Amino acid sequence: xxxxxxxxxxFTEGLGLEGTKIKVxxxxxxxxxxxxxxxxxxxxxxxxxxxxxxxxLASKEGIVAVEHLAGKNPRPINxxxxxxxxxxxxxxxxxxxxxxxxxxxxxxxxVGKFPFSASGKARILGEEEGFVKIVAEKKYDEILGVHIIxxxxxxxxxxxxxxxxxxxxxxxxxxxxxxxxxxSEAVMEAAEGVHDKTIxx
Length: 201
Hints:
Helices cover 28% and strands 17% of the residues.
């Protein structure tokens, strides 16, 4: 089965923005890194701003806006670390750059890939379709992106988000002990694969 969706668009008409300093471009409200508009004390988050239209991102944008409004010192959101999840069968999840986008951005990349067909837990679950792919930068071994298709992909992507938030290297992720048998081992094996160290295929 295939679902075709036309996507979503911002709903900013009729909000009374006329006569304010708030700028709207292509239907989206322009904001800075703290979600501030050009109108003093007016913030915007979620589907009306030009960021990915995802509930978890909108929630984080709301937190940044409220903390900034309250005089705290929130860290701006790194849009490269926003996880994307598709709740289908098999599940699909990704964070960061694809191999093609990393190359396009000028990175010298190395890739590790591990199939769920070689995962003991995936075989136990009867969900062997898919793989984990890790895109890393060659010089410093920084993890640039992680892409997962397969069992529990939308849960496993959190590990990749944490690793990238902490600026982990593929080597560090590959050296991190994972419980056996779990589907999360596929993340470790893919990280090992960046350095051609995968042994369970």
